[in-house]
Design the sequence.
């Protein structure tokens, strides 16, 4: 079970965007990376091309680049602070992520 999931709100701990928060758009499990909305924006130079006979304009595109998952922390919904999480198994057998600060369920 991954510590950070899609649609989690996270805070960036290191890098040029340290302190920014955003929602996780995509999790790349094999590379242990995430794409966070509005964070780690990079410029990509795109050449004009044809797609299915329809021309697509080129130019400089601004988009989010992946971050390593160790550089972010999940923000707890209850206490509103960045926190580490651990797993707890409920009596009905379901695994849930739990905030280490306040003990509330993150899921």
Sequence:
């Amino acid at each position: 079970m991954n510590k950070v999931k899609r649609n989690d709100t996270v805070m960036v701990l290191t890098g040029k965007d340290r302190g920014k928060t955003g929602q996780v758009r995509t999790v790349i499990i094999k590379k242990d990376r995430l794409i966070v909305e509005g964070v780690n924006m990079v410029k990509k130079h795109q050449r004009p091309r044809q797609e299915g006979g329809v021309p697509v304009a080129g130019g400089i595109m601004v988009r989010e680049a992946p971050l390593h998952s160790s550089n972010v922390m999940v923000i707890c919904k209850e206490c509103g602070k960045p926190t580490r999480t651990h797993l707890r198994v409920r009596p009905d057998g379901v695994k849930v992520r739990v905030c280490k600060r306040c003990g509330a369920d993150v899921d």
Observations:
- DSSP finds no helices and twelve strands in the chain.
- The chain has a mean pLDDT of 92.
- The domain at 9-47+56-99 is CATH 2.30.30.30 (SH3 type barrels.).
- The chain has one domain: 9-47+56-99.
